């Protein structure tokens, strides 16, 4: 995926919402955003931020990776580096690369580059469907999980606990690169 995914993402969000029998107002309420914002996204008038996509995907009962994969209409077993979908948050510069061949599978790997000073927050619902581990490859990451802050440096790996609101923050003057590994939660 390139950063030009806007029209396909708008269509995918609209299709998912209608497939679930939700009105724009119902999705807006579930995601904690305005009905006007839902309309603007679905009409392709704005590119949603990472935080907003996290809220919308959680409200639709899927992961952010699944949402992006559906917008790309891709099913594959091999993800060559040149073909791995990359998305950049227009607000923070957060850059997300889907490394796994298929989103929504048993396991997903995502590489993230978080610019200096950037902060991205996700609601607890974004963590309800998957187990997460974060492995910092380069830089520093201040990860807040509920009321607990974890300071991670290169080589550190954190397994998330029960779903809680989380914030990824790069407190350093250099880019932070980390890997997110996700597996399905057993219910």
Write a short abstract of this structure.
The chain is an alpha+beta fold.
Quaternary organisation of the protein chains: single chain
Biggest sheet strand order reads: 1-2-3-10-5-8
Radius of gyration computed on alpha carbons: 16 Å
CATH topology of the largest domain: Jelly Rolls
Helix content percent band: 25-40%
How many distinct beta strands? 10
- Name the CATH homologous superfamily of the largest domain: Jelly Rolls
**Which CATH architecture of the largest domain is right?**
Sandwich
Count of discrete alpha- or pi-helical segments spanning 4 or more residues: 5
Give the integer mean of the pLDDT values. Answer: 88
Shape: globular
| Low-confidence region ranges | none
Q: Helix- and strand-based class? A: alpha+beta
Structure, explained:
- The protein has 187 residues and is of the alpha+beta class.
- It has two domains: 6-72, 434 Repressor (Amino-terminal Domain), CATH 1.10.260; 81-184, Jelly Rolls (Sandwich), CATH 2.60.120.
- 26% of the residues lie in helices and 30% in strands.
- It is built from five helices and ten strands.
- The chain has helices at residues 6-19, 24-31, 35-42, 50-59, 64-72; strands at 86-88, 95-98, 107-114, 119-122, 130-138, 140-145, 148-153, 157-159, 166-169, 176-184.
- The strands form two sheets. Strands 1-2-3-10-5-8 form a six-stranded antiparallel sheet, with no helix packed on it.
- Helix 1 (6-19) packs across helix 5, helix 2 (24-31) packs across helix 3 and helix 2 (24-31) packs across helix 4 (50-59).
- The longest helix has 14 residues, at 6-19.
- The protein is globular and about 45 Å long.
- The relative contact order is 0.15.
- The model has no long low-confidence stretch (mean pLDDT 88).
């Amino acid at each position: 995926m390139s950063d030009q995914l806007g029209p396909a993402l708008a269509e995918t969000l609209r299709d998912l919402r209608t497939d679930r029998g939700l009105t724009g107002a119902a999705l807006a309420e579930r995601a904690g955003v305005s009905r006007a914002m839902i309309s603007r996204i679905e009409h392709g008038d704005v590119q949603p931020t990472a935080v907003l996509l996290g809220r919308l995907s959680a409200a639709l009962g899927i992961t952010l990776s699944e949402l992006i994969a559906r917008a790309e209409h891709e099913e594959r077993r091999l993800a060559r580096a040149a073909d791995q979908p990359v998305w950049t948050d227009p607000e923070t510069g957060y850059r997300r690369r889907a490394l796994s061949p298929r989103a929504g599978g048993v396991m997903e790997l995502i590489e993230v580059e978080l610019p200096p000073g950037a902060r991205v927050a996700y609601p607890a619902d974004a963590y309800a469907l998957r187990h997460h581990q974060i492995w910092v490859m380069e830089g520093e990451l201040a990860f807040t999980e509920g009321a607990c802050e974890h300071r991670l440096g290169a080589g550190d790996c954190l397994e998330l606990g029960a779903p809680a609101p989380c914030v990824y923050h790069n407190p350093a003057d250099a880019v932070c690169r980390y890997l997110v590994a996700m597996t399905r939660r057993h219910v």
